Amino acid sequence: MQTVVSTIEDLLALPDDGMRHELLDGIHVVTPAPNLLHQRTVSEIMAHLHSALAGRDDAESFTSPADVMLGPRTLVQPDLFVVRRTPGQRLERWADVGVPLLAIEILSPTTAPRDRGAKRRIYQRAGVLEYWIVDLDARLIERWRPDDARPEILDARVSWALPGGAAGTLDAADLFARVFEDRS
C-alpha cells in the first residue's frame, strides 16, 4: 500500500529510505541520491560559502538533507543554502531557519525541470534573495532573484552580497575545472 503524502506532517512521518522527499505546493516529490559530480560540486560551493561567511554571526550555510519549510504545503531540500541569523540566536531545528537568503540547486537530468520550474517559482514567491541553478553540463550558473522573469547567466564569476554585509565572489570557471578535474 502506498502512503499518501499531502501535508508536511505526512512527509515528516515517512520512514527514512535514503531518498530526498520534498513537498512542492502539496505535491510529493522523491529524488534518488545524487551522483558523485553533484556531490563534488556541493562540496566545492560549500567550501566557498564557509570561507565567505567565516567569522560572521549574521548568516550560516547548510547543505541538505534539511527540511526547509516555505509554507503550509511546501517543504524543500535545497542542495545548499544560506540563512539569516540574529546574533545570539540559537538555531536548533529546521523550523527555526526561516526563508533562506540564498538557495542553490545542482541540476541533474531528473531534477532539471523541477529546479527550473516549480522550485524556482516557490523560491521566488517565498522571497529567497538569490536562487542559483548550477548547470554542470553547460558549465554555468543561472541566478534568479524574486522579481526576475529570466535568469542572469554566469559562466565566469558570481559576485553576491546578502543583507548584513556577507558577500563573496565565486570563480565559476575555476569551480567547474575543479569539479571535472580539468588539468592544465
Give a quick summary of the entry.
The chain is α+β, with helices and mostly antiparallel strands and 184 residues long. The protein has 5 helices and 12 strands.
Could you characterize what this model shows?
The structure is a single chain. The protein has five helices and twelve strands. It has 184 residues and is an alpha+beta fold. The protein has one domain (34-179): tt1808, chain A (Alpha-Beta Complex), CATH 3.90.1570.10. The strands form four sheets. A six-stranded mixed beta sheet has the order 3-6-7-8-9-10, with helices on both faces. A two-stranded antiparallel sheet has the order 1-2. β9 (140-144) and β10 form a beta hairpin. α2 (36-53) crosses α5 (172-179). The termini are far apart.
Helices and strands, with pairings:
Blueprint: H1 8-12, E1 20-24, E2 27-31, H2 36-53, E3 59-63, E4 68-71, E5 74-76, E6 80-84, E7 102-106, H3 112-116, H4 118-126, E8 130-135, E9 140-144, E10 152-154, E11 157-161, E12 167-171, H5 172-179
Parallel strand pairs: 7-8
Antiparallel strand pairs: 1-2, 3-6, 4-5, 6-7, 8-9, 9-10, 11-12
Helix pairs in contact: 2-5
Give me the CATH fold name: tt1808, chain A
Shape: globular
* Helical proportion, percent range: 10-25%
The protein's oligomeric status is single chain
SSE order, one letter for each helix or strand: HEEHEEEEEHHEEEEEH
Q: What is the total tally of β strands? A: 12
Q: How many separate structural domains? A: 1
The value of Rg in angstroms is: 16 Å
- Which homologous superfamily in CATH is the superfamily? tt1808, chain A
User: Helical stretch count?
Assistant: 5
Distance between the termini: 54 Å
Note the beta-strand portion. 25-35%
CATH C-level name: Alpha Beta
CATH architectural type? Alpha-Beta Complex
Provide the low-confidence segments as ranges: none
**Structural class category:** alpha+beta
Report strand order across the widest sheet. Answer: 3-6-7-8-9-10
The overall pLDDT average reads 92
* Main pleated sheet: 6 strands, mixed
